[in-house]
Hints:
With 335 residues, the chain is an alpha+beta fold. It has one domain: paralog of FGE (formylglycine-generating enzyme) (Alpha-Beta Complex). It has helices spanning 6-41, 45-56, 75-80, 93-99, 141-150, 158-166, 184-199, and strands at 104-107, 120-123, 154-155, 261-266, 283-287, 326-327, 330-333. It starts with 5 loop residues before the first helix and ends with a strand. The relative contact order is 0.18.
Amino acid sequence: MARLPLTLIVTLLALMVAGGAQAQSLAERNAEMLQRMQQARGLSAGTMARVREIFAGSSYIGQGNPAVTQHPMSPAEASARMPGGGPQGYRNSRFERICGGRYMAPLYDPATQAPEDATVCMDMFEYPNVPAMYPVVWVTAREAALLCAAEGKRMADAHEWEGAASGQLLPPDYRFDLAAGVSAQAAVSRMRAAHNAAYAGQKRWSFGTTYQRGVCAMGSFKSSGCNGGSFRGCGSNTYPAGSFPNCRSPLGVYDIDGNAAEHMNLPLSPDQMASRGSTTLGVTEMKGSWFIWDTIRAHEDWSRWRAPFWHGTRVMDGGSHRNYHLGFRCVKDVR
Length: 335
């Protein structure tokens, strides 16, 4: 057998050491993040055991690859910008009574309902749903759904996220008739076209009816070595949650524009609706702009806009998509 050159052996050993250090650093950061999440939201030991088990099954989940991520704002800087000068300023006792947990907002239709009429609540912030903490990314749709379930919550259906973003939760409007007898990709294309056409004349964002730069966490930068979305080359250069207090929907959900993009469920038939109790779920839908949107607007994006079948799979497929700017938030049924 041919012997490897000494220089190649040294290079390979260096890469192995660097990789091990990086993995340990990611694990250490996750351990600290999960401990803070438990304290900030009052989660039980049993819940955290289930959450830690899901994190332990991935070499990617976290707040970004520590070797290349460069966050544009520190947690301390973010806290100073928050109501009351810190994360506690986002606590809402009325919402906590309705939702049964911290940092959640009820989803409802203000035209006909009060917050107390809500049957579902949404995390105010991207997971781990704690102000001043960076969002979790590099998570698959399946892992996101499992993490929500570990807390007794679930992934949002697309119409619920859209309602949270626009400030009015409307009844489901999925055109399931357009999905009958065709592939998932064709179904998404047909349903998307009908949906976007119906709402194109009512465009708005969480912060208002006109797109504005600087309101949300969209002023960061893409790593210079980010080519193709690799873990080694792409930093998750996100902001701490709640850094931009005016990036708030009328229903009290923050950072739904900017920071991390978000997984959710797009049902292609009634039995795939998470809001009706389905656990098999539909296909992946990625919502929300991300942390470079103020400088690079790669595609159209508004509160009720639905995307093409990007990296499309069933939500619960083991190989569902993950990347450096894609995270999630959960919802909880309260009635």
